[in-house]
TrEMBL record, chains A, B, C, D:
Enzyme class name: oxidoreductase
Sequence ranges assigned to domain Gfo/Idh/MocA-like oxidoreductase N-terminal in this UniProt record: 2-119
SUPFAM superfamilies xref list: Glyceraldehyde-3-phosphate dehydrogenase-like, C-terminal domain (SSF55347), NAD(P)-binding Rossmann-fold domains (SSF51735)
Residues in GFO/IDH/MocA-like oxidoreductase domain copies: 129-246
Listed name of the protein: Inositol 2-dehydrogenase
Family the entry assigns: Belongs to the Gfo/Idh/MocA family.
InterPro entries assigned to the protein according to its UniProt record, in alphabetical order: Gfo/Idh/MocA-like_OxRdtase_N, GFO_IDH_MocA-like_dom, Myo_inos_IolG, NAD(P)-bd_dom_sf
Organism: Cutibacterium avidum ATCC 25577
EC number(s) reported in the record: 1.1.1.18
Gene name tied to this protein: idhA
Gene3D superfamilies, A to Z: Dihydrodipicolinate Reductase, domain 2 (3.30.360.10), NAD(P)-binding Rossmann-like Domain (3.40.50.720)
Gene Ontology terms, MF aspect: inositol 2-dehydrogenase (NAD+) activity; nucleotide binding
Keywords in alphabetical order: Oxidoreductase
Pfam family membership, one: GFO_IDH_MocA
Length: 329, 329, 329, 329
């Protein structure tokens, strides 16, 4: 029974706490959040202890593993503190907002040698995983082109995005990881930012973007992002190889189809939120983490994946502003 | 070059005339219709001669083959007359409205030995044909159950239906032929009529029906008919076998799909009329007829198919009114 | 917190126990099964007590509600015993194998007035429920025809089926309930049995069947059953109304589609088992039961639904053997 | 009756000749091709005259309109000659291989004022047209992102491609026109070439590519090309707007779907060749040309569209080789 603490009792903290509670081999023992009653409320729901001070989590001998779901600018500090305290860590994405700070942390973690895994949940979604497996199994030959469509239902308030690190770091980061997961090393990044939302433009961020990644094999991944999508949370992937292709479609709440004099075979809007869409993925992600910790295998995706995705976000930001491809080799 | 005459210059006559005109090995030479300018108008469109008198068609030495698209009650007489005159015949369905009259005609035709084919156009539709081929090729194992959905977009006026022979003879006849085409001999018919349309009820006909056919192999075909279907002309088939199944979907005018906050993947209504839906089928049917005539092979579907379908319609009428299965063996 | 006991620690008992454990307002307190370690094993998994004797369940003052998942021939006796002991009851389908015994039980239960609900789980499946809701909301006009396809992946051993009551009672019972749920009173049943499996034929049962139900409104439901279906557990429904139709498709494990030189848009086989396919439905069914018990509302589907479905099964058996429609009015 | 001559009796010349023959308001009067029996063979099929010398076409007073389907390097010269002779012209794409030569021709044509239309056939495909109409009608709000997938079934021999002007000029030209048709003016082009085919690389061309176009409205179109695609001729489009999106899928020969223990809902491979896929489009294109000529309306797409697409191809070539975006303003 792995004793787990959750740091950050917000939306994502609740998702992880629920997965922990439902997992036969894990137990939520502690929740931490500095704000108001957040930690207490979360803890009570699952019969755990709580604290406002994350340091108490690291110091607690009864905690085996820590799930970090705090604001991004706290990730690096908490990661190091947890690792130094000998805890296994599952950290939310992105690892940080700036590439510059990450190298030193990575070096420190390498010395400590504790299991550290990062929350690229899409890798654990049954549909994304099935597509990636099909591609890796050789079922479609050699991969030549990957098309990722990734759109949110509606943009959050610009204010929320102020500390997000920008669309590439906050939103595309998942797609960067998925592209790397399929293609391996990316050698060139070209990004094209779009501004349809005046509030988001005012804070110097893009609200839509296209990114073209070239891998070391010559394959290209194209990512299309938009903060807004009327039909719902639009998450699709297609992998085109020399002998075939696989794709995954959006998920709807039911298989219902409607036919009338206006439309036929009409399905419902897509699931409208990432927590709904990736509910299974979060729980499978936790299982993978628990399994890695218990078997001693290196957790995957690891810190090198978190850093690589952040580097892509950084390169995309440069490319989008400077109008040329950015080489990563 | 097969010289073809069309008898009956109504809607279906025009369809056949167009197919003849477009066929590289056939030529429309004569059109016949007793009413008004119908024959003349059709003939002029394709540079053919015309007459009000069908007997002139049979007597014309310059006519090799006759397509009979006249009202059903004229079919048998014209069929015999054309055959006696040595013409090849492509006759529209149904062969007649009453089984009683058919036996003698079939006996006469057997003696004459001229090519006679019947217009069960659905056998020539690329999608229906592909499903039947898949089933016959053994791709889905032994056929156990067939589900046919066949609905018209909207009921014709009750007045039009007065001389139609009833829903089983006029509408289900196509589905009966398709079921026989897939399953072979039918040994038992059970039919269930429905009345939602008061005008059609008033003339003693049903406007919707379900028919269950049991074949000599033990397989069952279920046919669901309705004279009205808001999303369009609804024509589907599923064949379920021991190792798999095949189905065919409705056809839409384009592959367009619409996604918005109400619906996703919404397609357009089905093609709205049998002439549109089966345009290809009519032209492939004509090709099969011309090929049979030119090679001397027996045309298929032949008169035994026309008679068998009519017998099923007759049995269905009895079953629907008497509330029990009707055995055909 | 509703204290629940499970009677019958087989496959279905485990499904219900898991739902109870996951439900925030319910608690599994007791499991009963006369065979081997079944009750003990189930109980230990969820921290409950156990017994080999169902009578101890009825006598236990700490049990508020009982879920009956025992063999069908025990249902009626346990139902009465639980009700007399003042327990709420959720009973698996079918209520019994013979209509004859049910009337008296229904009369007794009416006097006792305890909440009794029956496990027609499909009513609680999100897709089936969405289709039924759409039909009942008037979105497709007046319902005219219902098409239910319901096939199992593979037949159980004939031996297992010996005590099942036959295909109509054991398998079609779900479809009978669904047809009634959509159409209301059924006035006429016609059934057509099929025998492809020699072992099942040897025990006097059918392994496939088509059933036609006529409702008091004139609408017709067609049910197509097969004990075997190579692509998986085939569960579909289409409701055709005067202004449109709704349908629900099978569920696959992911949204993956494969394209190559042989096939395009190929999806995976359907979920292969009812426990997987209806996992959500079982948990929503339990929620509905708990809500009914806690609010005092009459549980739905109730005993009248269980009895009505059994009467349809009985009528279908007669119809299939005698070759005529069986009237229920 | 428009009297039409076809210049170039190759594959595309035959396509146009067939459309002309089938059109009620047009007649094929003359075919020209300098090689072997090509012109004669084509002409005989449709009862037209023939010549080896294109100049005879321009000089022929009995020719109203000319369809130019000759090799690309002849287009400009024949276009001017035909226009000077007072013929209406339908010219195949691309207008030329080099932008440099086009300006002068465009200036000359402007002075002559004869109807000149270019063969961007996809604009006339029912599915592409339906998607574009939906977008232009405001049904999906303001267009933000366009995704075009356009892959050929298999690469032609490298030798054939030697004089093609490269992938952007030969293949992407259709997608450039479609992007412009939807988005209007393109202000920036970024292209990414890929080399998987060694033969094509050896002649200095790419065999796959991704192109990102930014329009003056800020919308972005992403085009993904590949010379090879195992499932067939892959031609899809998605237009994402502020209130919804439309997409069009590939076309298969039938609506057949196959279900077995390996795959479900599997469709057939896509139509395997552009002549099959766009058969309707070619005939609708001809109708639009004939209508423009007969009404005196300016044909659309006109020379400015042909030139604009060529400029995009030119810019893409520069971008792909130099690794930066190319501005067109």
């Amino acid at each position: 029974m792995l004793k787990i603490a959750v740091i950050g009792a917000g939306r994502i903290g609740h998702v992880h706490a629920r997965s922990v509670a439902a997992h036969p081999d894990a137990e939520l023992v502690l929740a931490s959040d500095p704000f108001g009653d957040a930690a207490e409320n979360l803890a009570k729901e699952y019969g755990a202890r709580f604290t406002k001070d994350a340091d108490e989590v690291f110091a607690d001998p009864d905690v085996d593993a820590v799930i970090i779901g705090s604001p991004t600018d706290l990730h690096l500090g908490q990661l190091i503190a947890a690792a130094k305290a000998g805890k296994a860590v599952l950290c939310e994405k992105p690892i940080a907002l700036e590439v510059a700070k990450v190298d030193q942390v990575q070096a420190e973690l390498d010395k400590i040698n504790t299991p550290v895994m990062f929350g690229f949940n899409r890798r654990f979604d049954p549909s994304f995983a099935a597509a990636v497996d099909a591609a890796k199994s050789g079922k479609i030959g050699t991969v030549e082109q990957v098309t990722i469509i990734s759109r949110d239902p509606a943009a959050p308030p610009a204010q929320y995005l102020t500390g997000s690190g920008g669309i590439f770091c906050d939103m595309t980061i998942h797609d960067f990881d998925m592209a790397r997961h399929i293609l391996g090393d990316v050698v060139e990044v070209s990004a094209f930012g779009q501004n349809f939302n005046a509030d988001i433009k005012a804070i110097g961020d893009f609200d839509a973007a296209v990114i073209v990644l070239r891998s070391s094999t010559g394959a290209i991944a194209t990512i299309t992002n938009d903060r807004a999508c009327a039909p719902g949370y639009d998450q699709r992937l297609e992998i085109h190889g020399t002998s075939g292709s696989v794709s995954i479609d959006n998920v709807r709440p039911t298989t219902l189809r409607l036919n009338n004099s206006e439309v036929t075979a009409a399905q419902q809007p897509y699931l409208d939120f990432f927590l709904e869409r990736y509910a299974d993925a979060y729980s499978r992600e936790l299982s993978a983490f628990i399994k890695a910790v218990s078997t001693g295998e290196k957790p995957n995706p690891g810190i090198e994946d978190a850093v690589a995705a952040l580097r892509l976000a950084d390169a995309a930001t440069v490319s989008a502003h400077e109008g040329h491809a950015v080489s990563l080799v």
